[in-house]
Amino acid sequence: MFEKRTEALLSRSKFFLRVLKFILLAISIIVVSLFIGILGYMQTEHLSMIDAFLNAAMLMGGMGPVNVLHSESAKVFAGIYALYCGFVVLVSVGIFFTPIFHRILHLFHLEGK
Predict the structure, then answer these.
(1) What whole-number distance in Å separates Cα of residue 98 and Cα of residue 101?
(2) Considering the entire predicted model, what is its pTM?
(3) How far apart are CA 107 and CA 97, in angstroms?
(4) What dihedral do alpha carbons 53, 56, 61, 63 form, nearest 10°?
(5) What is the extent of the structural domain holding 64?
(6) Phi/psi class of residue 46: alpha, beta or left (left: φ > 0; alpha: ψ in -120 to 50)?
(7) CATH number, domain at 34?
């Protein structure tokens, strides 16, 4: 997927395409995770789609749920989802920065001619 140490640096256009692919991958992971949160809130707390979206988005953003949770299952879901969202944010940031970090390291390891 990435060029090796002995290979030439990618052109800027190919590099930007690679960055775009990784950005789309990170966004898709976040969107799928948000969808999981929406479904979870709709099932456990019987919230409307908009309220479930708001709660899931707030948890994913690190702010916490907006609505008071009444059922035990909703509280357990919210706790597990909050831990999951922390992991998703870290993974998404890592995916986003991977091609940039690789290019910087590749620049340092290019053989001088």
Answers:
(1) 5
(2) 0.84
(3) 16
(4) 110
(5) 12-109
(6) left
(7) 1.10.287
Closest CA to 55 of 27, 74, 28: 74
Residue 36 pLDDT: 97
The residue with tokens 């390291």 is 105
Examine residue 77 and state whether it is found in any structural domain, yes or no: yes
Does residue 6 belong to any structural domain of this protein?
Answer: no
User: How many structural domains are present in the chain?
Assistant: 1
In a domain, 54, yes or no: yes
At 71, list the tokens: 């059922």
pLDDT averaged over the chain? Answer: 91
Residue 5 in any domain: the answer is no
Q: How far apart are CA 83 and CA 110, in angstroms?
A: 40
The single-letter code of the amino acid at 34 is L
